Amino acid sequence: MKHPLILASSSPFRQSLLQKFNLPFDTFSPDVDESALECETPIELVKRLSELKASAANKHFNKGLAIGSDQVAVFNNQILGKPHNKQNAVKQLNLFSGNTVTFLTGLCVYDIVTGTKKTCVEPFNVSFKILSDAQISAYCDAEQPYNCAGSFKSEGLGICLFEKLSGDDPNSLIGLPLIKLSQLLAEFGIDVLTAQGK
């Protein structure tokens, strides 16, 4: 293949999404500070972090296309991070009950050799059912989504929390917008379909 692909993520969810392309890729952990800067909007945050993660590939590889991605949940103009424990997850899901949350997923493809990068931000809306305390607690115990933005795993039992999903690419909710990624790779000369088996 013209450029080796490199996923700037240690997330097993992003790795399994990228495997759908059926192309070989390397991975590394970009290890960047994900704190928001003062006055940074959610869109600016995910864009900057995607670019930071992708360009961190410079430290590990001397050629290839690095793919960086970052995601935040936004509710009432507030950025919601990963809950890290049950108490915070319950609090987040109580907040979301009967409401719509926007997930913003930043995506950057970075050419290590030329320094060229292409970045986009993909929004996705999740409308939650009205959830009881018992449902929220049972869900948290069953799936322990404490390392997931928004306190759920949409690819698992989390799907039962929702009224409806709306957006261009359901993969973006899991953490990697594959439709946009295939378009960005095409701009770097990689057609995912014709690259099969090469």
* CATH C-level category: Alpha Beta
Q: Can you write the helix and strand succession as a string?
A: EHEHEEHEEHEHH
Number of strands: 7
Shape: globular
Structural class based on helices, strands and sheet pairing: alpha/beta
State the CATH architecture: Alpha-Beta Complex
User: How would you characterize the largest beta sheet?
Assistant: 7 strands, mixed
Give the C-alpha Rg: 17 Å
Mean pLDDT rating: 92
Number of helices: 6
Query: What is the CATH topology assignment?
Result: Maf protein
Helix content: 25-40%
Give the termini separation: 6 Å
Short description:
The protein is α/β, with parallel strands linked by helices and 198 residues long. It has six helices and seven strands; from the N terminus they run βαβαββαββαβαα.
Walkthrough of the structure:
Helix content is about 30%, strand content about 25%. The protein is of the alpha/beta class and about 200 residues long. The chain has a single domain, classed as Alpha-Beta Complex (Maf protein). Strands 1, 2, 3, 4, 5, 6 and 7 form a 7-stranded mixed beta sheet that branches. The protein is globular, with a radius of gyration of 17 Å. The model has no long low-confidence stretch (mean pLDDT about 90).
Features:
single chain; 198 residues; alpha/beta; Maf protein; 7-stranded mixed β-sheet; 6 helices; 29% helix; globular; nucleoside triphosphate diphosphatase activity
